[in-house]
């Protein structure tokens, strides 16, 4: 069995390949107990632009940046931690020195700050994804300054530019819609903007538009837009309310870009946060989340909830005598054999080491007992991996939900039952009484 650090090292090439081939600047920041923020990783694009090197790894943000800049960045980090979710903000002058106050010398950036929390709810790391948006900001300004200039620039932008009236009808769509979304611009004009948005996100976009009409402030939205082939593409849309000479709302200006690569990357991160790297099963965090949801719903459903705690008998002996490679392959094959005994609705998770848990919803307790017997009977004691032959059985502890129990108590009861199963000779199951 590999340690947690070994798993990370085995996947480092995969991580580096993703991070270093993304044009955005990516910083992984470690958050320490004393509230200092230290660089754990800086991708290739960020190093090239900022001049930071590997020497920055392990150093604090204040060590590497001017105090004013460091204070500003750390303020955003702390805000994201306090909010407990991702935040996005824009600033200018990032890693730049200027000889004058001319706007031409400024660089504009958009930063996406995502705090990562451990099982205790403590923020351990921050992922900062920074993108230079100078070109976009200047073009947005030019668009607002002049209708003529704005149409000329919009027609030559690779970003998607459109104008919609206050009711959502499209007035203008840039030629880039054809290249990115497969729709000719003329097919948009006169149509409702909402006809192209994924149905599950229309209400949210409408609410955001209503807020903008009240506040007259810009907003950044993310939603799926229909491609001409009827697939859905994720877009990041900067929406601005354009006012007339009387400072009343005139129409909306939208500048959008396709963000499928980033969404896939974020999905990978979410998957890694809730799944075991070795077996690809749900991990302890995801299992506890599903168990808590199941318990919350138990009072409204005429179902029994069963939790099985499973581990491999004498797994340490296999690891010590045959090696970690055999141990890891045993864990993977073992998890697949258990999964084959379960229904689609059952949840199998690896909690760590050779410990597994199963969450079952059953009409009667005997249904869960039948599944436990099936697992014991179907998983034969004799194994052959890489020409190594050995015996390995399993023991199961089972507990059923009762009114008032929380997830920790239910898991503890299953663990106690597992202890008795091992004490009674292994290769069997026991129910908590």
UniProtKB/TrEMBL annotation:
| Entry protein name | Diguanylate cyclase
Instruction: Pinpoint the PAS domain residues.
Output: 146-216
Classification via Pfam families: GGDEF (PF00990), PAS_3 (PF08447), PAS_4 (PF08448)
Q: InterPro entries from the entry?
A: Biofilm_reg_signaling (IPR052155), GGDEF_dom (IPR000160), Nucleotide_cyclase (IPR029787), PAC (IPR001610), PAS (IPR000014), PAS-assoc_C (IPR000700), PAS-like_dom_sf (IPR035965), PAS_4 (IPR013656)
Q: Which organism is it from?
A: Defluviitalea raffinosedens
User: Where in this chain does the record put each PAC domain?
Assistant: 88-145, 219-271
Q: Where is the GGDEF domain?
A: 303-433
């Amino acid at each position: 069995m590999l340690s947690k650090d070994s798993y990370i090292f085995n996947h480092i090439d995969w991580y580096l390949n993703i991070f270093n081939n993304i044009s955005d600047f990516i910083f992984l920041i470690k958050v320490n107990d004393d509230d200092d923020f230290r660089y754990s990783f800086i991708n290739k694009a960020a190093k090239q632009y900022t001049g930071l090197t590997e020497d920055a790894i392990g150093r604090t943000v204040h060590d590497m940046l001017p105090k004013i800049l460091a204070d500003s960045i750390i303020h955003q980090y702390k805000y994201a931690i306090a909010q407990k979710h991702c935040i996005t903000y824009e600033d200018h002058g990032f890693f730049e020195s200027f000889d004058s106050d001319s706007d031409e010398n400024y660089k504009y950036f958009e930063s996406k700050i995502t705090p990562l929390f451990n099982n205790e709810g403590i923020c351990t790391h921050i992922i900062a994804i920074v993108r230079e948006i100078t070109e976009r900001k200047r073009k947005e300004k030019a668009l607002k300054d002049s209708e003529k200039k704005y149409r000329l620039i919009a027609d030559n932008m690779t970003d998607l530019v459109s104008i919609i009236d206050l009711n959502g009808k499209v007035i203008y769509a840039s030629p880039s819609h054809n290249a990115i979304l497969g729709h000719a611009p003329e097919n948009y004009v006169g149509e409702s903007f909402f006809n192209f948005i994924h149905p599950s996100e229309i209400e949210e976009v409408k609410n955001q538009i209503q807020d903008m009409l009240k506040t007259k402030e810009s907003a950044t939205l993310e939603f799926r837009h229909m491609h001409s082939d009827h697939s859905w593409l994720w877009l990041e849309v900067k929406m601005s309310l354009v006012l007339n000479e009387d400072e009343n709302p005139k129409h909306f200006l939208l500048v959008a870009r396709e963000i499928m690569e980033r969404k896939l990357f974020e999905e990978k991160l979410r998957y890694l946060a809730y799944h075991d790297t070795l077996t690809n099963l749900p991990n302890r965090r995801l299992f506890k989340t599903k168990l808590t949801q199941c318990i919350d719903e138990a009072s409204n459903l005429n179902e029994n909830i069963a939790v099985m705690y499973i581990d491999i008998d004498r797994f340490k002996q296999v690891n010590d005598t045959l090696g970690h490679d055999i141990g890891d392959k045993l864990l993977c094959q073992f998890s697949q054999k258990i999964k084959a005994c379960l229904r689609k609705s059952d949840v199998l998770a690896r909690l760590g080491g050779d410990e597994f848990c199963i969450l079952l919803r059953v009409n009667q307790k005997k249904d869960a007992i039948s599944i436990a017997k099936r697992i014991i009977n179907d998983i034969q004691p004799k194994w052959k991996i890489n020409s190594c032959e050995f015996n390995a059985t399993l023991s199961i502890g089972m507990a059923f939900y009762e009114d008032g129990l929380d997830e920790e108590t239910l898991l503890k009861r299953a663990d106690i039952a597992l202890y008795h199963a091992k004490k009674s000779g292994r290769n069997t199951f026991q129910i908590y009484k």
